[in-house]
Each structure stands twice: as structure tokens, then as C-alpha cells.
Amino acid sequence: MEKIKLEIIGMSYSQSQSGAYALILGEIGGKRRLPIIIGGFEAQAIAIELEKMKPSRPLTHDLFKSFAETFGVTIKEVVINKFQEGVFHAELVCLDDKHEYRIDARTSDAVALSLRFNCPVYTYESIMSKAGIIVDEKDKEKTAEEKPGKPGNIYEQYSVEELNNLLKQAIEKEEYEKASKIRDEINRRKTL
Description:
The chain has 192 residues and is α+β, with helices and mostly antiparallel strands. Helix content is 35%, strand content 31%. The protein has 2 domains: 129 residues, Bifunctional nuclease domain (Roll); 52 residues, no CATH class.
């Protein structure tokens, strides 16, 4: 399977989950984004490395890097290799002098380590097509606001066209968590 290289586009605070953040990964040279909900500690670990801040004592991901380097292990790449039941899975592709190892990891930890090891992050087309959101800078048309509706899945009452418009609007406003919920409803309908 051909891999798609990703870069960190940004992070935003989750409006519906207290203490959670949306990590936004984007395909290099493309318009698709992969919004991933992560915890506050993992968001902090990523933000600290992005901002090149140096804590007075090593944080967990820094300790992992130091430990790995002490024993001659490096991370070659991170691969987001599964998307099951709304959860992303990743693996660390590690090298020592003789072998390549693949280690299962939470995606948030894998991204935090990729920054520390300065290695690329990849995913597969099947994951991007299933969980990705397309950002089209040219299309900035105004769309309908959310309609009041029954509790539960508020997006069930919309047509696919309305959902696509809401998705574009959420992306334009950088409301990636909302966009991922709309994307999930669109994908749910494709399987019906």
C-alpha cells in the first residue's frame, strides 16, 4: 500500500469534550485533513516540542527518546495504520543496528515522538478516504447553520448536500471536532 505523508496543521481545544484537543494532520501537497481527538497531556507534549520549549526535567516522551538513543534505537517513521470504530491506531517503525521493529502506539504518542525523533508521519489512502476531511479554499460559500433537532445524532435530520455544506463551514471556521462528527454521519450513510 502506498503511504501518504502528513504534517501537523494545528491543534484546537475541544468544545464538547473537557480537556480534549483536536490534532489536525494534513496531507502534504493536498487538501485533505485528518482530525484526531487527543487528550490534554498529549496535546501539551506535542505543543511543547512544536514550540521548542525545554522543560526543566524530561517529560515522558523526552525520556523515551533518551532511553531509545542510549540503546541505539531510532524511530524511522510513524504510520497511522488503522481507523476502527472512530479510533486511530498507529505504529512506530523503529531501527537498531540489525533489525526493524514495529511497535503499536496511540496516535497522539506516536506524533509526539515523531517530533522528537524528527521523523515523518504517514497514513494510507484507505484511512484518508474514510476519515479525512477535504479543505477547499476556493469554495467559501455561506451555508445553513445547524438546525435544532432531537437529542443524540443531530446530523441525522440533514440531507447529504446539507451535511457537505455544514462540513465546509466547520472546516472554514476550524471547528475540526464538529467536522469529524459531520464526516462520520456522511460515512455512516454511505454504508446504508
